[in-house]
């Protein structure tokens, strides 16, 4: 398989799409997460700190950091956790905006499609490519 260089326009479109996705995810984080969960997510993902470093920065244990990120089991059922809340908020937003023709709705549809458990790398590239080309994600 040969290497195909991207044009400057293709790169600009992908960067713009990535920025828009980031803004939508940030809005979802603000609406779905507690302030402490947002702090943990920002330190862990944006500052690239380890769970131990996040724990030290916030004065909590590493186990608590992990629970803020992934949740925990209560009576055998998974509860809480920033990842679960974000996934649920994206899915809810995608359902409520189905058929809407806005850029926000397109981004939410792409994010929802990317959360599909049967997602392959090829399909992920296709879904993200449709967004950078101004299209809507297919389910």
Provide a descriptive summary of the structure in words.
α1 crosses α5 and α3 packs across α4. It is built from seven helices and two strands, in the order ααααββααα. It has a two-stranded antiparallel sheet. The chain is mainly α. It has helices at 8-32, 35-46, 51-58, 62-70, 82-96, 103-114, 121-132; strands at 72-74, 77-79. The protein has one domain (8-132).
Order of strands in the sheet with the most strands? Answer: 1-2
Q: Round the Cα radius of gyration to an integer and report it.
A: 17 Å
In round numbers, the mean pLDDT is 84
| Count of β-strands | 2
Domain tally: 1
Structural class: mainly alpha
Which features characterize this protein?
139 residues, mainly alpha, globular
Short description:
With 139 residues, the protein is mainly alpha-helical. It is built from seven helices and two strands, in the order H-H-H-H-E-E-H-H-H.
Sequence-ordered SSE layout with sheet pairings:
Elements: H1 8-32, H2 35-46, H3 51-58, H4 62-70, E1 72-74, E2 77-79, H5 82-96, H6 103-114, H7 121-132
Antiparallel strand pairs: 1-2
